[in-house]
Give the backbone structure.
Amino acid sequence: MSTALSSNHIVKIGIVTPDVEDSAARCRAVYGQGPPPRTQTDEPPAYTVKPYFEYRGQRLDRPANMKVISVYTDNFWFEFIEPLPGPPNPWQDHLDAHGLSVAFVSAHIDSGFERDLAAMESLGYPVIWTHDKGYERYAYFDTADRLGFMVEVKELQPR
């Protein structure tokens, strides 16, 4: 069976919440807390690309403000996001529209970021958020109305 994305390796479920500490604590009470996966690091590797953010076609001069807590399990992690006042972003928009809920499901890709963007566009799912950190980049697609969540792809390739 053919897939639109270059990988179906689901690594993360993103949940927006008005209270990140409470939501993460409740999740840990159910699932516990495992070790961070190999792909999570506090120290970004060297890179040459200047980081940027773009939301719905508009380049932003600063990142979205948020609190984030991850709860790791054996095969994926939950990323709880509490949006804070700041520039427009998909997390605040999702929280405003749906309240506490799953906002996105994330797949890691090794390469082929532009290929995946084009494939999703061809299916009628435009990119709504991109963030290039220089050592990784990710995108969200406008899939929530048809899938119930945004699709995220994350490429871990220093450039």
